[in-house]
Amino acid sequence: MSLIGRANTALNINTVTGVDEALSVHGSDWLWAVTAIYVLSFIVLLVLSFAAKESERVFHYLFSFALLVGAITYYAQASDLGWSAVKQTDHLGNGVVRQMFYARYINWVVSFPSLVLGLGLISGVSWTTIFCNIAIAWYWVISYLVSAYTTTAYRWGFFAFGTFSWLILAMSTINESREAAALLGIERDYLFLAGLNIAFSDSRPSRESGDVSKEAPPATTDVSMAS
């Protein structure tokens, strides 16, 4: 049978019960496409690592691992796995219980510290700063994870702690690490990479964690936010 004409049957095989708002077929299709991008990117970066200079291979290994973790977490989401039911306490127009993919937090707890480590190595900042920033990145993502699972208004406390830690990480990235990069003469290039990292990081965990507190979209569009 041709794979091109095969329908997406993941939602029929891995059925969802006990939730009012769940992944749609179109959402699953999108997540399969993202999975393919991650796998392709991993393969390309892995191949390039064999031709890279010895001093540059650490970046290839670091981001290859992050891409591999991202690939399997998106595979889980596309397959309608790696989730749990979370009760909503307000904005119940689309139901009381929603499907929350914890798989994406597994991705974030690996990918964002990997980016922090990569930026730290590029800037030449001290290892103490790098380790502190990695710890803050973990604190930030885990705080948002707890916020997403909290079903009362106390979720905002975890969200606030996570957001505050993200601000600390962002300030360290564009201040202390930038100063170290300037000493190496790569300040402009570093700021470009750091800016992309901050913009990307701000759009992911905060959006999912805050989604338990705001009105949920219809089920047919729910997982447009899962990427």
TrEMBL record:
Subcellular location: Membrane
Principal localisation: membrane
Keywords annotated in UniProt: Membrane, Transmembrane, Transmembrane helix
Spans annotated as Disordered: 204-227
Compositionally biased spans, kind Basic and acidic residues: 204-214
GO cellular component term, pick one: endoplasmic reticulum
Keyword field contains Transmembrane helix: yes
Superkingdom of this protein's organism: Eukaryota
Family: Belongs to the archaeal/bacterial/fungal opsin family.
Name assigned to this protein: Family A G protein-coupled receptor-like protein
Organism taxonomic ancestry: Eukaryota, Fungi, Dikarya, Ascomycota, Pezizomycotina
